[in-house]
Design brief:
The complex is a heterodimer of chains A (509) and B (421).
Chain A (H helix, E strand, L loop, with lengths): L3 E6 L2 E6 L4 H7 L23 E4 L6 E2 L10 E3 L3 H16 L15 H9 L17 E2 L4 E3 L9 H9 L5 E4 L6 E4 L12 H5 L5 E3 L12 E6 L8 E7 L2 E7 L12 H5 L2 H4 L8 E2 L2 E2 L2 H14 L5 E5 L5 H14 L3 E4 L19 H6 L3 E2 L9 E7 L9 H6 E8 L7 E4 L8 E5 L3 E5 L12 H12 L9 H11 L8 H4 L4 E2 L8
Parallel strand pairs in A: 1-5, 16-17, 16-19, 17-18, 19-20, 20-21
Antiparallel strand pairs in A: 1-2, 3-4, 3-5, 6-7, 7-10, 8-9, 11-12, 12-13, 14-15, 14-21, 22-23, 23-24
Helix pairs in contact in A: 2-3, 8-12, 9-12, 9-13
Chain B lengths: L19 H6 L4 H9 L2 H11 L11 H6 L9 E6 L9 H7 L1 H15 L3 E6 L4 H16 L15 E6 L9 H8 L23 E5 H13 L1 H6 L1 E2 L2 E2 L1 E8 L5 E6 L5 H8 L9 E5 L8 E2 L9 H6 L8 E6 L4 H15 L5 H18 L5 H14 L7 H15 L1 H8 L6
Parallel strand pairs in B: 1-2, 1-4, 2-3, 7-11
Antiparallel strand pairs in B: 5-6, 7-8, 9-10, 9-11
Helix pairs in contact in B: 2-6, 2-9, 3-6, 5-6, 5-7, 6-9, 13-14, 13-16, 14-15, 15-16, 16-17
Classes of the chains: A alpha/beta (509), B alpha/beta (421).
Chain lengths: 509, 421
Amino acid sequence: MSGTVNITVDGKQVAVPAGTNLIEAARHAGKSVPHYCYHPRLTVAGNCRICLVEIQGQGKLQIACNTKVTEGMSYFTDNERVRKAREGVMELLLINHPLDCPICDQAGECKLQEYAVEHGSGVTRFAFEKVSKPKNVSWGDRVVFDSERCILCTRCVRFLDEIAGTPEVGVDLRGEKATLIVKGDGQLTSPYQMNIIDLCPVGALTSRDFRFKSRVWFMHFTDTLCTSCARGCNTVVGSRGDRVLRMVPRTNPDVNDSWMCDFGRLHYGFANDPERLTTPRVAGKGAPYAVAISRAKAILEGARGQGILAVASPFMTNEELFALKGILDHLGVEDRYFLKPMGEGDQLLVHPEKCPNARGASLLGFLEAPAEWASKEYGVLLYVVPREGTDLPEEVLKRAKRRILFSLKDREADVCFPLTTWIEKDGTVVSAGDRLQRLTKGITFESTLVTERTVLDRLHAAFDAGSGSEGTAAQALARLAAAVPAFQGATWQRIGPMGMKLKAAGAPA
Amino acid sequence: MIGETRVMLEHAADPAQRTLAGYRRNGGYQALAKALREMKPEEVTEEVLKSGLRGRGGAGFPTGRKWKFVPKTTKQKYICVNADESEPGTCKDRQIMENDPHQLIEGTLIAAYAIGAGTGYIYVRGEYPHSIRALEDALEEARGAGLVGRDILGSGFSCDIWVHSGAGAYICGEETALLTSLEGNRGYPRLRPPFPAVEGLWKCPTVVNNVETLACVTHILRRGAAWFSSLGCEGSTGTRLFCISGHVRNPGVYELECGKFTLRELLMDLGGGTPSGRPIKGVLPGGSSMPVLTAAELDVRFDLDSIAKAGSSLGSGAIMVFDESVSAVDVALNISQFYSHESCGQCTPCREGSDWVRLMLDAVRRRDAGEKDLALLLDVLDRIEGNTICALAEAFCWPVRSFVKKFGAEFEAHVAGRASA
């Protein structure tokens, strides 16, 4: 399909790409056609019937999702006839719906609620007992199904079949008794199964993890990334107060379409861990940041000549790595490494590198840690402990006379700074395919916490008052982009919420 | 006296006709031999087109035109026989399959040749074990004689035919649901476009024809399009099988030429009138999914187009007669019960609406509904009809609406003086 065709939507003429369906085409004219079963990344099912439109010259109303534009086509998304049909579909969808919005997790982000307001009549004319269907059905440890709320749009059926490749959900029975079932033993197996919760336009599929935790309208939402692997799936983190409550995928066709794996989605609990370190420790005792920073400075200064080993974390942002690089450059430290946790990948999204920014660490001059560490003695170990998946061998840790650590949990060290998690800071990472993407701060875990970049910048300033560091992540990125060729041209704004491709960076991934 | 014109049922009473030898004695498989040896596939299609044959499954679409939609690709193509005879009141295809199965096999092979299909499937209603057995026996004999399978009659044309049993769902008689079911999936009708002729079974070009339609094809090729179109009348050529049931003295399956008499003449003469002598109240002339005709509407000429002009349809050829003892409310309720039970549940309006309509009619029948509820019922029908993937919604909207409108007084009597439920 190439070229454009001229169409008229509700009297407004627009040119749209050939092959566009009438739902997408209407957007070009500033119109939105309601839809439940249609999803741009799934095959067309055409069963919900809420997207009926009137095409000039055609007797019956047609579903917009399964109709493609043709030259000269004129259609109506909002005339009397369409409104009546739509109101009818809305009414029929609700006659057997339990209307249990007060206890439904979907409330507040439910298409039934939204379209009922926009397209419904506001009253029911149904005077009979509603159909009773299975409720609170466990589909395994992650998904809970309520058949009474289900509108049988089959988005979940199609996702598992077409995207996840595990066709494990189907429809059983007929007519008003029809219900979804999980084939076999009734338990989902797909490592991507939780995407069906997001796809479900109503409250039929809910997340066991998120159920009843919070009404969505009390939550704060942050566009950010998943940091469980190098894919960098675009996400939205939902939080309330200082706690993360859930993470869901955010559509980005260049990275993750509209999906993410269940592991990544559910892997946020470390951010809420009450055992986390929230103030620096000096020699095992809590200390203000200023004290910890000056102690770290003294240790590093004292180690000149005895050798310093710097081990960075691939969970650090580029800006944090760049701040660390500034200190190492100033001190003339040559041994700069980072640890890289590895695991299994898959064909869809999961990347074998189990960290978000190994590539960024490489580009900023850190070497992947050797499989066997040389038995070299160091005066100081400056070590940003990876969030998970890997750690320095005990003997390397012990071989250093003094240790300055950044860690989520308190560890034995001369100075131990707390780590902040991905949702507590702004910054950038280099995801798979050399894609520069943004992390955005969503919560403050503890008001006492200072992010690693600020700690490192202050430490740098302690050595060199004119280092000119600190400031916002955007400013830090600007300094980084000016200094490191691979990042040339990158600005906070250019990266935007969808990320940007780095120029061919040269260094091996 | 209205007489039958027996073509498809000519030898139905002869048990020997079920065997290959018997069938051949009566000219069997000569039409196939003629088509394969003397005609190009396009010529076969032209012949069928010229005969004026219209599909006998219910919609009455010209068969030759349906075949012409099949693209001339080298891709695998299929011929599917819709033998899922499930429309209430319909029992005609069964006569062909059980008493003269070879004429269906012969017609199927001719159709396969015309469209270039290498495989045929006969999708038989699961409740028809006798039909399935008769077809399988006939197929085995035909296969043994080189009439089905590879290189049929030495012509180089190959086509195998398989019998597939349905599992009891009415919806699988809808041609796209039939295909979905054949593929091993839940019998859900499909969106059109694409039409089966372009993208049908396993995404290959597929023609789905009714049993009776393909039986006609055999006779058209045997005796010519001109002969076929000389039978019946314009728009309803050939003979058609009709299943007359209900309040008639002589229920049964009849093979008739259309256009020669009125519906009333048919019911009074061949049907013998009502057994009780009570007047006829209403007739469903084409299965339970068609609008009812009242006693005052029976003087319509009996052919496809005239019945259509009268606001109903000959549909699947099932003529159901009710005398004055029958409650119009009961019939409407019964119809809605059937279709709400058979709604596949795919589309919102039919899934939810068919049951709501049933509940409303049930309330009317129990005299538990008010006057406003009749208006509501009609309004709900309006919201359902025309808004679904397949025609099952129309299959209850049309008859129910026709009963409420044509027997309004009876419905009103049920709700008189009552407030809305």
